[in-house]
Structure formats: C-alpha cells, structure tokens
Amino acid sequence: MKKQDVIRKGIAVLCICTLTAGLWGCGTEEKSEEEKILRVVADGRLYKKAEAAAGFTEGTNSEIEVRIQRLPDEKETRENEIQKLRTEIMAGKGPDLFLLECIPENAEIEGGFLIDNPYKTMQSGALASLDTFMEKDSYWEDGNYNKTFLKAGQYDGRQYIIPMSVCYYVLPRSEDIEEMTGDTLEEWLEQIRASDDIRLKQALCTFGSTHSARWMQPAADYERKEVLLDKDKWVEFSEKYFQFRKEAYEEISGKENELYFRPLNKTLLTLYESQIDLQVVPDIEGRKMASIMSYGAVSMSSDRKKEAYDFLMLFLNDRTEQYRKKHADDSSMGLPSLYGYLDGNYMPVQKTAFEQWGEFPSEEMIQEMQESFREIDGAYFLTEGERALNFDVMSGNSRVTNLNCDIETEFSKIADTAIDIYKMLVEE
After folding, report:
1. What is the pTM of this model?
2. Model confidence at 399: pLDDT above 90
C-alpha cells in the first residue's frame, strides 16, 4: 500500500474512532431539567436555516434553549473547530444534532469534514437510531419525502441519517433539441455522436471528464463491504467517451457552449423559466442516482435525542407553516417558517418544497422538477472514493489529450486505483 494510502486510511479510522469514543462518555455532562439545552452543529450554508429553526423552537417551547455552533469556512479555523468538537465527542459532551453539508465531487473543502465518511460513521455506533421516533411520526405516512433517498442513511436495517438535499444532473432540453431516447449514458453517447447538433456534443464533452464519479453509482456497498465498480464496463465506457471527445474536438473547438448537463439547482431555475424539458442523466448501467448534499443525524451520546429529532423534522414537516396560519392575525406571535427544506442551494428531498425553494418558478417548471424527482432510483454519499476517482480521471484526460497516451491503458490503471481505494474504504 502506498504511503499516502496508509496515511489516508489512518486518518479515516481516527475520525470514526474519535466519534465512537464519545459513546463511553454518555451522560457525563450534567444538565438540569430546567435547562434543556439543545446543542446543534451546522455547516456554513445551513446555518441561517438552523437559526430560524432555533427561533421557532425557543418561541414555542420556553423550556428549551438552542445553541448553534457554525463550522467555519476558513481552513485553519475550521480544522481547529473540528478537532475541538471531536475532543468534546470523546468526552461525551458533543452536539446533540449534526446538520452537515457535502460538496460536489469535483470541489474541495478547506479544513475537511467533521464526518469524513457517513457510511462508516453509521457503523461505528456514534449516531443514534431514529426508527423509534420515525415510527411514531405521521409525517412519514404522507409520501412527500422521496423515500429512495433514505436507504443511504441506513445501516443494519435502521435509520441513522436523514438526507436533506440532493444533487442530480439533467439535460435541460428546449423543443429544438432532440430528445435522448436511450436508457444508459453509453446509449446517450452513441446518439450524440451520430447527431448533427453541436450543442449536444458540447454538453457531453464538458460533463463527462469532470463528473466521472457519476458514471457508475453506487460504486461500493459499505454494509456488505463490497466494491460495486465494474472495471470492464467502466473502462469500456471510458474508451468510447474519450474517443468521442477526440473526434468532437475540432467540431466544437472555439465555439461558445450553448448547452450543458446541469445539476438541478437554483442556478438552472434562473436560466430556464419555461418551455424546457428536464431529462435526468443516467449512469452507464441506466441508474439515475442523486448525491446527498446535506443531511441530519442525532448523536448517540445526546440525552436530548427526541428534542434533536423534532428540531431536525422542522425542516421537513409543516409545523412552522401550521403555526403561522394559526397565528396569522397575531403579529406578536410571528415566528419563522421553514417551508419544508434545509439547504437553499440543492434540491429538496420532498416535492412539496419545490415552489418555495425555487422562489416560485412557473407551473411548467415545477411539473418538470416533480417528474425528474420521481425518476431518481436512489442516493449516495460522496466520499474520498468519488473525489479521488474524479481527480484521477481529469488527470488521465490531460495525459490522453496532451501526451497521446493509450486510452485503454490509462483508464485501466485509473479503475484499478479506484477499486483499491474503495476496498480500503469499505474494509477499514
């Protein structure tokens, strides 16, 4: 094993062990019944919504005080705060609730994540099972939440994490752009290769190399400790894709891009108001998967588990809206409404939140969003495996393009490295 792999593995295990160690300190922080302090740690883009939820909670329950800790954005400060939190967790004094964000696989976060790998953290015992609360909660009976997302937050048949926003890519297709008829990304590639529409070729060229971690998902099963990335299929598609890029280069070179495969987010909504069809981009096996971009989890060491769960559910249920309607005539009772979503950047996990989250897009756009939403087959957490694979493919693309390296040889090596990393991640 390479030196950097050993270091990487050691850091990952340390993160999990640090969270797990907090279990042995459960109950060491004494709190009187009168206090009922609920501690929440929130990542940057989730902080304002967490503050609003705190305002509602304290405004409707005088016995609870909510203390929110915002994880900093600046690298050194963030690293220090994360280390302090891990030390607190070891002593059983960590937060009751985690509201954490993920970032795209082709981006980096300065200072790292409090939870590096949610899959392994669920297995460590650091998070509380939410099943008891969910079974008694009528919210889960109404069908608004896309329950295909829940599986990613489960371990051994129990729910430990609730995904709160997701990211998946679509082809925003106007009437003058041909519809993709294939079920797999490879079939899309062949259709676009044969097409005379340069816009489609531009869209596929800019999507593939920077989002290669989405070519085949899920790539690993952490519970069964299995790597699911199929090397033969992955390398075969890589060859076809980068050969297509070579062929299309002269045709698209120097021309301004008019079309992109885009994540379904607020940026897309500002660009396209109507007369648009959203086709969800499949992977090479035909699955339509979403990456989880924010999530909530309750600490096992918390003695406020029910309160933490209730706080988290404020971002999904209609409790704040019902309160607002009930007290509409009483301005002194005005409290924040949360409108069914936590993350303002990425796609909500329930269809009833689309209108407010999207800042009232057209009815046509809402229908397109809902249709694409129903097509999603499942969700997954972005881990070191996806980030490493994405970086290696971008580097491989540069070598193939600039050094004329053999595509099959280059990407066979990349697949081997990716499989080794996933093996390390599932087995640690």
Report:
1. 0.90
2. no
